[in-house]
Design brief:
By secondary structure, the chain is mainly α. The chain has helices at 2-29, 64-79, 107-119, 124-127, 149-160, 165-174, 191-205, 210-224, 272-279, 286-314, 325-351, 362-375; strands at 54-58, 83-88, 93-98, 136-141, 177-181, 184-189. Strands 1-3-2 form a three-stranded antiparallel sheet, covered by helices on one side. A three-stranded antiparallel sheet has the order 4-6-5, sandwiched between helices. Strand 2 and strand 3 form a beta hairpin. This is KRR1 small subunit processome component.
């Protein structure tokens, strides 16, 4: 009887363990504030690495002068992690290798990312941050996303914005350093920020303006500060931007309407004999057939002749004249007005004395006498 008692005593303890496991998993999902992963030290790997690893990358010709200038700083930064670097100016390549003193296995991967960023025109002051534990990088290739070259340049410029304002806003919201160079976009920062940067860059190349994504990032940033909304869904707060089909496709003038599909073949067209049988011409004699053809030809000739005569007679038909009734009325109206004016003038003339004023015969003789005196 002792055996079943032991089994009964074990069952409640197992249930408690399962509950504890469930609570532990939920606690693990939330990271406490201010927690940081401890750095990887030599104590964690005292014996070092077994094999030597190396990575190489090519750099463009225009980066040669800058790499020469900052190469001592690169060697010093990689020397702290016990990784050797070589610069080959003839081939145009940078190579990084692990050494016997290297204890961190992930250091060579960080060194590989460092030389990739330097080759993609990222300045050394920013590229060195990749050697830190909390930093990561992402090089997004955008050259093959848009086929048309002019369209690609416009969308890339849209990502940068006027005087780099759009890129600066993206850097502030994602806490990442973003560098647009040629057909690639280099990003450096935390993992969560890199994810957002990649989304914004790819959406911009798909003709979605970056301002929409920046607006959503700003709202997310404000919502993250509220501790009550951390466990809730943010979909109700985020804006839903819909595509507006502004330019519609031009439709053709003549639209071809497709007929409904039928498995049966189209009906066979009627032959000449079938048509003659339907009209009854097939049973006529040859002389009657000739007579009918002659009658048809004569009817066509008569129609053509009548058309020609009509065209010839068009030249002899006089054009229709416009009626001049309105002008005559206007003229009569003007005449009436003139007659009244004349009557008024006549009345005025009757009231005054008619005729020319009488000429004094003395006046000319007096003048003649004065002239003679002057001459004398």
């Amino acid at each position: 009887m002792a055996a079943p008692a032991e089994s009964t005593s074990k069952t409640p303890t197992n249930k408690k363990q399962k509950k504890n496991k469930h609570t532990d998993e939920t606690e693990l999902l939330t990271v406490p504030d201010g927690w940081k992963e401890p750095k990887f030290a030599r104590v964690d790997n005292p014996r070092g690495l077994l094999e030597e690893s190396s990575f190489a990358t090519l750099f463009p010709k225009y980066r040669e002068a800058y790499l020469k200038q900052c190469w001592p700083l690169v060697q010093k930064a990689l020397g702290d992690v016990f990784i050797s670097a070589t610069l080959d100016l003839i081939e145009g390549s940078i190579t990084v290798n692990t050494t016997k003193k290297t204890f961190d296995p992930y250091a060579i991967l960080r060194a590989r990312d460092l030389i990739k960023l330097l080759a993609r025109s990222v300045p050394f002051e920013q590229a060195v941050r990749i050697l830190e534990d909390d930093m990561a990088c992402d090089i997004i290739k955008i050259g093959t996303l848009v086929r048309n070259r002019e369209r690609f340049v416009k969308r890339r410029q849209r990502l940068i914005g006027p005087k780099g304002s759009t890129l600066k806003a993206l850097e502030l919201l994602t806490s990442c350093y973003v560098m647009v160079q040629g057909s690639t976009v280099s990003a450096l920062g935390p993992y969560s920020g890199l994810k957002e940067v990649r989304k914004v860059v790819l959406d911009t190349m798909k003709n979605i303006h970056p301002i929409y994504n920046i607006k959503t990032l700003m709202i997310k940033r404000e919502l993250a500060n509220d501790p009550e909304l951390r466990t809730q869904s943010w979909e109700r707060f985020l804006p839903n931007f819909r595509h507006k089909s502004l330019s519609k496709r031009k439709q053709p003038k003549k639209k071809t309407v497709k007929k409904e599909y039928t498995p049966f073949p189209p009906p066979q067209p009627e032959s000449k004999i079938d048509k003659e049988l339907a009209t009854g011409e097939f049973f006529l004699r040859e002389s009657e057939k000739r007579r009918q053809k002659m009658n048809e030809i004569k009817a066509k000739q008569a129609e053509a002749l009548s058309k020609r005569q009509e065209q010839r007679q068009k030249a002899f038909i006089p054009p229709k004249e416009k009626p001049a009734v309105k002008k005559s009325k206007a003229a009569t109206g003007e005449n009436k007005i003139d007659i009244q004016a004349i009557k008024e003038k006549v009345k005025k003339a009757k009231s005054k004395k008619l005729g020319a004023p009488p000429v004094n015969p003395e006046t000319p003789s007096a003048k003649d006498g004065k002239r003679k005196k002057v001459k004398s």
